[in-house]
Amino acid sequence: MSEDFSSCLRDIPDxxxxxxxxxxxxxxxxNPQKFTEVIDAMAKLIENQExxxxxxxxxxxxxxATALAQKLNLGMVMARKPGKLPGKVVSQSYDLEYGSATLExxxxxxxxxxxxxxxxxxxxxxxxxRAASDLVEKMGAKTAGYAFFVELSFLNGKQLLESGPVHSLxxx
Length: 172
Ligand code: AMP
Fold this sequence. Notes:
alpha/beta, two-stranded antiparallel ribbon, 28% helix
C-alpha cells in the first residue's frame, strides 16, 4: 500500500537547503483519486481514537487536516506561523537545526480536556509536531496522537512524540 502512495510523491534534492531531499506532495494533490485514497487510508488509521479536534500544522498540514476533519466530522484547528492568526494567541517556540521557529494557536480554540490529534504532511525530526503538541498541553487540552502522510523514519522524529500514538501512511 505504501509503495503505491509513495508514487504520488516527488523527491526534490537540495531543497530548501543543500543535503535535504524534499518530499513534494504536489503530484498527490494533482490526482484527486489518489488524494481521496490517501485521506480514506489516513482516516482508517485514526477513526477508532477518541478525538475532539484535528490540529493542522501550517501549511501543508492544513490540507490533510481539513480533508480528514470533513471525512470524520471533526473540528479542525490551525497551528500557524507567527503573526498570521487574529486575536489572542498562545505561542510555542522550538529549536531548528539552525535557529528557532514558533507556532501559534488562538487561545479559545480548545476547552480544557479536549482530545486533539496533530496532523502534518511530513514527520522529519519531530520538532514541529512536538511544538504543536506542547501548545495543546499548554492550553489545557490533551494530545490524542499524531498522523502524517509521510514519515522519514531514519530521522527518529517519533522519539520526540511521547504523548500518543504516531500514525503514518508512507515510511522511508
Ligand atoms: P520536523 O520538525 O523536522 O519534523 O519537520 C517537519 C516540518 O518540516 C513539516 O511541516 C514538514 O512539512 C517539513 N519538512 C521537513 N522535512 C521535510 C522534507 N524532507 N520534505 C518535505 N517537508 C519536510
